Model the fold of this input.
Amino acid sequence: MGPLWARWNRGLQRRYTLGIEEELMLLRPESCSLAQASDQVVAQLSSELSFHALPETHAAVIELRTGIHTHVDGGLAELAILRRRLKDELSALGLSVAAAGTHPLAVGEETSVSSAPRYRLLGDSLRSLARREPTMALHVHVGVPDPEDAIRVLNGLRSSVPILIALSANSPYLRGSDGGFDSMRTVLFQAFPRTGAPRAFDSYADYVGAIDPVIRARAVDDSSFFWWDVRPQPALGTVEVRVMDAQSTISDVAPLVALIQSLSRLRLEGDDDAAWHAPPSAEVLAENRFLAARDGMAARLIEPVSGRLVPVAEMVETLLDACRPHAVKLGCAADLERVRVLAAANGAARQRAFTAAGRGLDGLVPDLVTRFLAPDRHPLREPAPRPATDHHTTERSG
Done:
């Protein structure tokens, strides 16, 4: 039977369902500084919104969660509603909200840890690591009813981690200066234990056998304390992609969700003999991960088959070509094409362009606040028709 924590939730009954989670920064409107207020905020939200909003490790961060969706457009529509509702309710509490991988001006001395029981435990465990500047991520859950399929998806998605970092990088500034990385969030977060890219696993039993000794020894409470870039979530029956920076606009969330859903289908139903499927070694993956966090879409990554440094933009195009037929089947082809918008200018590039235009870091956070509810600025074409057999579910993704 295996350990209780490892029993796979098969309740979703179908592959590729989606749940979206984003970590958002709470702000004081008058200064746009971080507001250490998540515990008070969660206690005062409406009953409808509180189902979707939870505290996070840092008291200046709140997590917003959608329910389960079959299609990207459904998940994004709900996320837009939740963002609007959260902004309105925070305004009534004298607060504001924005999304990026880091707050450009925050310093660790201002940071508090949430008083929620899980995060008090983390504060005791991680000590000074839990009190550094907060980081904010975008997480995407993909429903996979069979645990062996989940391992196949995990093994495939881990190979794409550097590309996802490059596309989603949205945190060039930290402590009031340019940190020299497109994703300073990646650099900061990897100071936590049990982070980074997971190794490839031979089977679900291999995965369970790898982490169960840590849980059995009570070093951690359960598998959710493994904060890998991509991880199985047995209790939810999902594979969770956690490597991406939080995105400032809904229109930047959409292509990332579409890419992850399409990649998941590609890994289970694509051509196993294709050259792009060659897994990188752990050393190559680690180096590519660093290069992507540092240089974003300007990075040159090691191509596993040839061993050459290749522009990440070329890898993105290769991946899009492989994913396109799967996106058509999933009904997210239009959103997948918007990956090119991020490839042309990710969030880090846009933040730097804003400050280079003479508006400075002091104006950057107010701009992020404005962009939080910005309409879709990059329409490309109408979404592809949905398959006739598809339907939405109303369960939570977790």
Observations:
- The first strand starts at residue 18 and ends at 28.
